[in-house]
Design brief:
With 111 residues, this protein is mainly alpha-helical. The chain has a domain of 70 residues. The chain has five helices and two strands. The chain has a two-stranded antiparallel sheet. It is globular, with a radius of gyration of 14 Å. The mean pLDDT is 95.
Length: 111
């Protein structure tokens, strides 16, 4: 049950972030929920492998390359879900940063 609540809160964070950034488009709550599911699955299973493979460049850039990985994940999710659109890499980077901030604010308010 906690996973469902977490996904709903992340979907709300996606909607709030798309409201802040007009260049990122989500057509509705269902698509935001799908974005939350796909991002959660990628962050759980695929992102640790990517971080491990890019460990040398992450160490050299003092973990700033992780932001690039997050933006690429957002671009990939945009490719997978037709109701979620991010046109440009820099908007995906900004979206991932603002999404993490909004997500942390929402989760701190709920707990």
């Amino acid at each position: 049950m906690d996973i469902i609540i977490s996904l709903i809160l992340t979907a709300v964070a996606v909607l709030v972030t798309t409201y802040i950034l007009p260049w990122v488009i989500v057509t509705g709550f269902v698509d935001a929920f799908l974005v939350a599911i796909v991002i959660s699955v990628i962050n759980t299973f695929i992102k640790p492998v990517i971080i491990l493979l890019t460990l040398p460049i992450n160490i050299l850039t003092i973990w700033l390359f992780t932001f690039v990985i997050n933006a690429l994940i957002i671009m990939f999710v945009s490719y997978l879900i037709p109701g979620f659109k991010v046109d440009w890499f820099w908007w995906a980077l900004l979206f991932s940063i603002i999404l993490s901030l909004v997500n942390s604010i929402i989760f701190s308010l709920v707990k």
